[in-house]
Structure formats: structure tokens, C-alpha cells
């Protein structure tokens, strides 16, 4: 047998890519304590906390307007599956946290979609999950955005701002062709 055949099977690791943006990041340097150079391992049973207090938070934001502990991310295995995910929990009593367009008050939590935007105050964080198989730990990879995330990206995970009729068919752009919309009674269909 060759050494390749005897080697243990390599596990892929779930990685949470987090891209940070704040309009004052160049002057205020609030991300100076974050490690943008490499991936970090986090034990599966640890809660990754974000906030101002570096003694409690794994990811410190140097800004007096950020809560001592702003929010946390918890890695978990979904019930009756082999899939893993993250839940985000708002730990700030003063600031609401928004995940895509869902607002979380203090101690509210929600499953983190595979691709979403987390917002609080002027902070924007693009979170993207890269799936893996390892059960003992996950990795985080932090990135810094130079432009606002909400304006630069058109994410498929964000709900459309246009209403969709009950029949599920989006209206065409016939209004621009000079036609006006007509109301139809559902009994006429």
C-alpha cells in the first residue's frame, strides 16, 4: 500500500466568510483588531461573539457605538440531517440587528441563510457559508469591503421589493408600453 492509500480521509471544513463594511472604516479603524489575513478555526461548541469588549468577544469592533457584546454566531447540526448551519442571535439591548430584512430585537435569534447581509447601525456584514463535513470545528475567513455591500451586490437571498400577485406570475412591464392595469374579479377567471 502506498502512503496515500493509508492516509486518513481528509474532511472538508465548514467556513463562514464574513465581509465587513462601515462608511467610516478608513478614518476610525474600527476593524483594526480583526484578522483579515487568514482563516481561523473555531471549536464547534464555542459561540463566536462580536462586539466592543475584547475580553468577551472573539471578534472585537473598536467603536464606542457598538454594544459590549453585539451579536453571536453558533454552529450547529440540523436535526435528523448531516447538514450544519449557523444561528445568529442579537445580544444588544440597544441596537436591533437585521439579517437580510428580518429585524431581531434583544435575544432574538434566527438561522443564518447560506448567503445574507447582517446589519446594525452603519455596519454591513456579508455572510456566506461554505459547507463542510467536519464536526469538531468550523472556520471563519474575514474580508474587508471597500464599497457598501448593500449597494454593490444584488443578492438572490434578499426578497424582492416588488409584490408578487397570488397567481405567482410577476406582471410584465406592459405599463411602459402605454397600457394601464385592469382589475379583474376572481369570479371572471
Automatic annotation (TrEMBL):
It is found in: Cytoplasm. InterPro entries: FHA_dom, SMAD_FHA_dom_sf, TIFA. Residues 170-189 are annotated as: Disordered. Residues 170-180 have a biased composition (Polar residues). Pfam families: FHA. Residues 49-121 form the FHA domain. GO terms for cellular component: cytoplasm. Keywords: Cytoplasm, Immunity, Innate immunity. Belongs to the TIFA family. PANTHER family: TRAF-INTERACTING PROTEIN WITH FHA DOMAIN-CONTAINING PROTEIN A, TRAF-INTERACTING PROTEIN WITH FHA DOMAIN-CONTAINING PROTEIN A FAMILY MEMBER. This is TRAF-interacting protein with FHA domain-containing protein A.
Amino acid at each position: 500500500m502506498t502512503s496515500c492509500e493509508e492516509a486518513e480521509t481528509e474532511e472538508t471544513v465548514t467556513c463562514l466568510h464574513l465581509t465587513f463594511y462601515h462608511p467610516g472604516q478608513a478614518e476610525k479603524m474600527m476593524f483594526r483588531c480583526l484578522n483579515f489575513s487568514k482563516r481561523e478555526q473555531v471549536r464547534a461548541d464555542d459561540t463566536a461573539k462580536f462586539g466592543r469588549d475584547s475580553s468577551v468577544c472573539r471578534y472585537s469592533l473598536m467603536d464606542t457605538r457598538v454594544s459590549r457584546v453585539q451579536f453571536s454566531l453558533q454552529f450547529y447540526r440540523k436535526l435528523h440531517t448531516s447538514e450544519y448551519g449557523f444561528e445568529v442571535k442579537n445580544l444588544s439591548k440597544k441596537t436591533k440587528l437585521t439579517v437580510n430584512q428580518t429585524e431581531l430585537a434583544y435575544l432574538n435569534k434566527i438561522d443564518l441563510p447560506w448567503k445574507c447581509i447582517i446589519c446594525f447601525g452603519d455596519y454591513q456584514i456579508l455572510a456566506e457559508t461554505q459547507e463542510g463535513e467536519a464536526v469538531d470545528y468550523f472556520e471563519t475567513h474575514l474580508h474587508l469591503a471597500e464599497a457598501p455591500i448593500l449597494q454593490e451586490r444584488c443578492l438572490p437571498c434578499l426578497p424582492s421589493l416588488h409584490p408578487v400577485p397570488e397567481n405567482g406570475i410577476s406582471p410584465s412591464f406592459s405599463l411602459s408600453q402605454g397600457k394601464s392595469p385592469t382589475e379583474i374579479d376572481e369570479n371572471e377567471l
